[in-house]
Amino acid sequence: MRRSLSAGALGVALVAGVLGVPGNIAHAVESPDISVTNAKAHLDQFQSIATANGGNRYTGRPGYKASADWVKSKLDAAGYTTTLQQFNTSAGTSYNVIAEWPHGDANHVVMAGSHLDSVSSGPGINDNGTGSAGVLEVALAYAASGQTARNRLRFGFWGAEELGLLGSKYYVNNLPAAERDKIELYLNFDMIGSPNPGYFVYNDNPAGNSARDDLTAYFTSKSVQTEYIDVQGRSDHAAFRSLGIATAGTFTGAEGTKTSAQAAKWGGTAGQAYDPCYHRSCDNINNLNLTALDRNIDAIGHMIWNYAQKDYGSGPPPGGSNLLLNPGFESGAVNWTGTSGVVTNSSSKPARSGSYKAWLQGNGSTSTENTGQSVAIPAAATAATLSFWIRIDSAETTSSVVYDTLKVQIVDGGTTTTLATYSNLNKGSAYVEKTFNVLAYKGKTVTVKFLGAEDSSLQTSFVVDDTALTVP
Ligand code: PHE
Ligand code: ZN
Ligand code: ZN
Ligand code: CA
């Protein structure tokens, strides 16, 4: 046999089998104490970068690029998949740093972000070294935690916020619509260590109300009272909110003045700004309240640990609902039955997406192999389409004789219907998509089956990926 079921495929299948049961109640996840000592060390780094680069980390100046490079290097070392996304502004080139934890369901993305740039007048330690240090430390802690994320975690460090939210706008404007739809939540952190702090929770997006309530409940559980604030278009969540994405965030205050009622519940100085150094040169490493920072980074950790595990269901994808489970084979052989070893992440054949696919035949000897999945097509379906991608390579050289075949079949009880037969004559280097109308099977439970057969010599490989049986 040319290949066997890899240990990796078995491991993935087992994990998916235990954790991937639809409808499992997600238990509240206990999140660790996020180290304020580590977050403070990140702020020291931002201060050093500013000091070494003319006193700021402003767009188009070397202190910004140095900040972006440093954050990216930390995330790279922790195992994130990172992207430095470049864009142009009137002040010069800027960059977003995007970091994705390469685990969990890529169809359900949970994001947190912060702007990484300062104004030109100072180092920007509270605005927004604090949000950046907090999001970075949570990302690093998550990577080190050994947690198995159910969903896909992504962290954004935005450039040019101070020029009008340019980085976050650039990011969302360049996301394909299908990718926007996968973002379940965006959490924003901009100024979370103000020296005369308030404890504000964003309240400007009804789609984010449950995340808002989770943040509020977290602070309440730590005996910290919060107030809602309508931040509207004043920070980077606005770009996400305008796409209809759920957003939430926290804030410890900028140029606004703390009231005496607020000073009574939060301490600090009434009649003074939450951050008297807001957008000034004195927003340096001394312009911090580390208790406020500590509480806010723990809140970020609480949200990330919990939303990483949240059950968003399989949900109908845009354009219809795919009735096939594990349709791209990325969970290994889960939900597919047939010849063992067919579902594989072997590097010998490319997947169309991800790394797994169904590789039938390719033995170069007399043999048959199959894989299939049972699926119930609703009686009320008004349309039903079977689709998949297939790539066929063959050592056969004939242009007229069929030696090796792959049949696509619908097994309906004792009746098997062959929708199509591919062979060595259909070989080609690219994946091609095939679609079939299967509405005739509405109200039935049928098996979608791929059945291969080879003759005694010269291999033909039929590689199938990204299957779908879609109903509207
Ligand atoms: N985005 C503002 C800035 O960077 C600060 C701010 C954050 C104001 C959140 C309101 C709410 O200058
Ligand atoms: Zn600012
Ligand atoms: Zn800011
Ligand atoms: Ca795949």
From TrEMBL:
<dbReference type="GO" id="GO:0046872">
    <property type="term" value="F:metal ion binding"/>
</dbReference>
<dbReference type="GO" id="GO:0006508">
    <property type="term" value="P:proteolysis"/>
</dbReference>
<comment type="similarity">
    <text>Belongs to the peptidase M28 family. M28A subfamily.</text>
</comment>
<keyword id="KW-0862">Zinc</keyword>
<dbReference type="InterPro" id="IPR007484">
    <property type="entry name" value="Peptidase_M28"/>
</dbReference>
<feature type="domain" description="Peptidase M28">
    <location>
        <begin position="96"/>
        <end position="302"/>
    </location>
</feature>
<dbReference type="InterPro" id="IPR045175">
    <property type="entry name" value="M28_fam"/>
</dbReference>
<keyword id="KW-0031">Aminopeptidase</keyword>
<keyword id="KW-0732">Signal</keyword>
<dbReference type="GO" id="GO:0004177">
    <property type="term" value="F:aminopeptidase activity"/>
</dbReference>
<dbReference type="InterPro" id="IPR041756">
    <property type="entry name" value="M28_SGAP-like"/>
</dbReference>
<dbReference type="Pfam" id="PF04389">
    <property type="entry name" value="Peptidase_M28"/>
</dbReference>
<keyword id="KW-0378">Hydrolase</keyword>
<dbReference type="GO" id="GO:0008235">
    <property type="term" value="F:metalloexopeptidase activity"/>
</dbReference>
<protein>
    <submittedName>
        <fullName>Aminopeptidase S</fullName>
        <ecNumber>3.4.11.24</ecNumber>
    </submittedName>
</protein>
<keyword id="KW-0479">Metal-binding</keyword>
<keyword id="KW-0645">Protease</keyword>
